[in-house]
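User: Now give one protein:

AI:
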Amino acid sequence: MSEPAATAAKLRKGDGRRSRGNRSGFTTGACSAAAARAATLGLVSGEVPQSVLCCLPNGQQVSFTVINGRVDGEGDSRSAHAVIVKDAGDDPDATNGAHLTADVRILPGRAGEIVLKGGPGVGTVTKLGLGLEVGGPAINPVPRRNIGDNVAAAAAELLDHDGLEVTISVPGGDEMAKKTLNSRLGILGGISILGTTGIVRPYSTAAFRASVVQAIDVAARQGQKSVVLTTGGRSEKFAMRQLPELDESCFVQMGDFVKAAFVAAIKNKMDYVHIGAMVGKLTKMGQGLAVTHAWKAQIDRELLAEAAREVGAPPELVEEIRSAETARFAAEHLATLGLTVDFHRALAKKAIRSLKSCYPGSYHLCVHVCDFDGNFIVRVEEECDEPQKNS
């Protein structure tokens, strides 16, 4: 999804408790650079190598296996083709196994020029906010430079009198892109070519955090003045039902990254910030946590107990909540007393106070709360004593 647009190529992460490997892999940018270097070497020598040593953006030298290498044509009409199969390591990356393909041809008389193009399977940028030219290929700035550097190193003296055109393509990239958030970011028809280091770290939180910030930036560049921050897919679908008038670009799955999302919303001068959440994450927002992941901090049972007490829960239940392991315990037991709406309203008010204290700004804050099945419970507006009725 690791850099801003990394964002777009990552699948959403699942349960952090399941078994995870830690083998790193390589980004689409690194694989593209390796393919381009191999094809350029083939253009210069007449034969594409079976492996190529590529310099990654982080300075590391890595050997990649090359497949389907060939050189076609003669003289100034010759071109070369090379493919690198992406290995994402143990990261659940939608582009794992992609065939990053480079076709390089000579541009006679255009000394020193390296023209980079996107072929089939590489997305086209259709919206502002990505730091890329609208109408151009979704190849991020760092991979662009890295591809150019590797091509220049391989071309050597050829560039003294001619230029090179490098086309990166990804067979099947349009289908891979359907498993990403590319379309919401305005990247259509294929995947993004990404990578600030060249290395994919399994389950990278940095990549997810960057995707949150980028999505808010994109919404702002489209002129949107509202952003809807949700904690996952279920709460996002719920929020979309509550706010059907808003464009899809307004909806951002912030996951656990509350601080990153609010800082980006404030920086982009959003007028309205909506939150879509269930009881657990809502409680953690009330605690003032910048990151709400279970590994970072436990639920504040005292906060839950206080909210239960405020809405009239019997003292013995308040004490049980104070010693319970989960927020769900409180929600389910208060539901049996008919206190679901009152309890979640109290938590939402605490979350609003905490969020506005941690992230002050002129934006108006509204919290939409759903149950574990994504059903509406309550909506609470900032500085409103009573929540609005569900539409």
User: Anything to note?
Assistant: The first strand starts at residue 25 and ends at 26. Residues 1-19, 384-391 have pLDDT under 50 and may be disordered. Residues 6-200 form a domain with the CbiD-like fold (CATH 3.30.2110.10).
